[in-house]
């Protein structure tokens, strides 16, 4: 499918930008096998699949069947993913460690409407193979700590899958005996920073475990600052795009570090909540610059972070009563829409959220003012005595389609509300966005659009 020139160029991009952050492969073995022509084709294809979303890859996206014609990143990835999936389904003879590496990397890609399920399945298979090889146990003869490095890369991918797709962690910490990979052992400063943030994410995931007794609303004290982590890992010499990508990972973790407990009111301004708001604003401010957005390394955490930031701005827009806060949130929401539309050019995983957010943005422009969006909030005593139930996605959705969007303020039939009544026919759309924003910010429940009937997520992007 790929020429030698294309393979060489995309492999160089992968090892320059992605490998330092996630050193799951042995780079020396890769280049040697590639030069000798003995490298497994699925391994080359998964490397090229991930590198294809990098901005530097655009001029190299050529398929043999298209000759010298450049194709889009999404078409390139779709063709490559189809071939790669078919090869894995044929049970191609691959070494267990090679297969484990391919599956781990493949979890960083989502293709089509079932992409989230497929990606979760790949990391589950990779972790299963790692446990079958007892990589979670100390291995005294592990030359150069290679297997230890592979294990902890898979552990990070497992935690990313748990957070971004709301799945249970596959590898329980209590079952892991292999020591942490130290900065001296990793030989990668970028990985050291990534590992440090992943450990923070591992702590944050505990906020969302269903059996946690008396869960707190967030990580309020002793939360490490990003610059502190960079200082600890002596990482200021990393290229700016790598630091920025790791910062996006950190900001996404910080947003999750405050858990929303209700959907009827804005939470109290705890330290975790304030960090959540600040992180969402900073993510949108950074990503709305096209040059900065395109410079980020092609990890799916970028798309997830954009969706989280959009969800935070939507919650502020929906539940704040301060006109200035609502207007700021509206601007952030619209900026987030533009960011997701840009990400859709390369990331199929951005389709659903980008499509829905675009429709919400159009609906907002049709409202006479933002007051009609405000969701009625009972007083504190009423909330404490009768906490509102949360409607789950998939729970009697046919009935929910005909219900109003959470208790929209209708007691005061103000002139603005009367004029807005024709536009409130879109209330199901806002109700859907309520559910989706909650789904992203409540990482206990799996992210899925399977039961969401209000939008066609396969429609083309709006550019």
What are its keywords?
20 helices; 463 residues; 55% helix; 0% strand; globular; mainly alpha; single chain
Provide an overview of this structure.
One of its GO terms (biological process) is DNA-templated transcription. This is Xylanolytic transcriptional activator regulatory domain-containing protein. Keywords: DNA-binding, Nucleus, Transcription, Transcription regulation, Zinc. It comes from Aspergillus sclerotiicarbonarius (strain CBS 121057 / IBT 28362). The chain has 463 residues and is mainly alpha-helical. The chain has a domain of 272 residues. The chain is 55% helix and 0% strand. It is built from 20 helices and no strands. Helix 11 packs antiparallel against helix 12 and helix 12 packs across helix 15. The longest helix is centred in the last third of the chain and has 21 residues. The protein starts with a helix and ends in a 22-residue tail after the last helix.
Report the principal-axis shape: globular
Helix content class = 55-70%
Structural class: mainly alpha
Query: How many E strands?
Result: 0
User: End-to-end span in angstroms?
Assistant: 29 Å
Largest sheet: none
The succession of helices and strands, N to C, reads: HHHHHHHHHHHHHHHHHHHH
Radius of gyration based on Cα positions: 23 Å
Give average pLDDT, whole number. Answer: 83
Unreliable spans: 377-415, 417-425
Q: Indicate the proportion of strand residues.
A: under 5%
Discrete helix count? 20
Keywords: DNA-binding, Nucleus, Transcription, Transcription regulation, Zinc
Region (Disordered): 381-417
Biased composition (Basic and acidic residues): 381-404
InterPro entries: Amide_Lactam_Regulators, XnlR_reg_dom
């Amino acid at each position: 499918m790929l020429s030698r020139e294309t393979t060489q160029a995309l492999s160089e991009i992968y090892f320059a930008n992605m490998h330092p952050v996630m050193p799951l492969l042995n780079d020396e073995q890769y280049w040697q096998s590639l030069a000798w022509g003995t490298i497994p084709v699925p391994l080359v294809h998964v490397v090229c699949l991930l590198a294809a979303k990098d901005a530097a890859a655009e001029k190299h996206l050529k398929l043999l069947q298209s000759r010298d014609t450049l194709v889009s990143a999404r078409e390139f990835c779709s063709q490559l993913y189809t071939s790669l999936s078919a090869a894995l389904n044929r049970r191609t003879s691959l070494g267990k460690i090679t297969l484990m590496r391919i599956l781990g990397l493949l979890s960083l890609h989502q293709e089509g409407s079932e992409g989230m399920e497929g990606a979760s399945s790949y990391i589950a298979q990779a972790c299963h193979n790692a446990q079958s090889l007892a990589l979670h146990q100390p291995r005294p003869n592990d030359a150069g700590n290679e297997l230890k490095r592979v294990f902890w890369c898979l552990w990070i991918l497992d935690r990313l899958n748990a957070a971004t797709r709301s799945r249970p962690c596959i590898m329980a910490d209590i079952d892991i005996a292999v020591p942490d990979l130290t900065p001296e052992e990793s030989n990668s400063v970028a990985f050291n920073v990534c590992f440090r943030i992943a450990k923070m994410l591992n702590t944050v995931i505990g906020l969302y475990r269903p059996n946690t007794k008396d869960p707190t609303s967030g990580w309020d004290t002793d939360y490490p600052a990003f610059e502190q982590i960079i200082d600890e890992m002596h990482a200021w010499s990393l290229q700016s795009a790598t630091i920025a990508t790791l910062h996006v990972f950190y900001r996404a973790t910080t947003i999750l570090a405050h858990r929303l407990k209700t959907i009827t009111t804005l939470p109290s301004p705890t330290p975790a909540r304030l960090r959540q708001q600040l992180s969402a604003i900073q993510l949108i401010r950074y990503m709305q610059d096209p040059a900065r957005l395109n410079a980020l390394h092609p990890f799916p955490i970028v798309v997830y972070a954009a969706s989280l930031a959009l969800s935070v701005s939507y919650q502020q827009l929906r539940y704040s009563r301060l006109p200035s806060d609502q207007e700021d949130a509206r601007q952030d929401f619209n900026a987030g829409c533009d960011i997701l539309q840009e990400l859709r050019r390369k990331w199929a995983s951005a389709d659903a959220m980008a499509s829905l957010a675009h429709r919400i943005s159009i609906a907002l422009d049709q409202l006479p003012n933002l007051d009609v969006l405000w969701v009625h909030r009972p007083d504190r005593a009423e909330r404490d005595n009768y906490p509102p139930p949360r409607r789950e996605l998939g729970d009697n959705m046919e009935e929910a389609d005909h219900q109003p969007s959470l208790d929209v303020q209708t007691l005061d039939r103000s002139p603005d509300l009367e004029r807005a009544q024709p536009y409130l026919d879109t209330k199901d759309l806002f109700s859907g966005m309520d559910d989706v924003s909650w789904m992203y910010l409540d990482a206990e429940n799996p992210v899925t659009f399977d039961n969401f009937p209000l939008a066609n997520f396969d429609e083309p992007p709006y550019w």
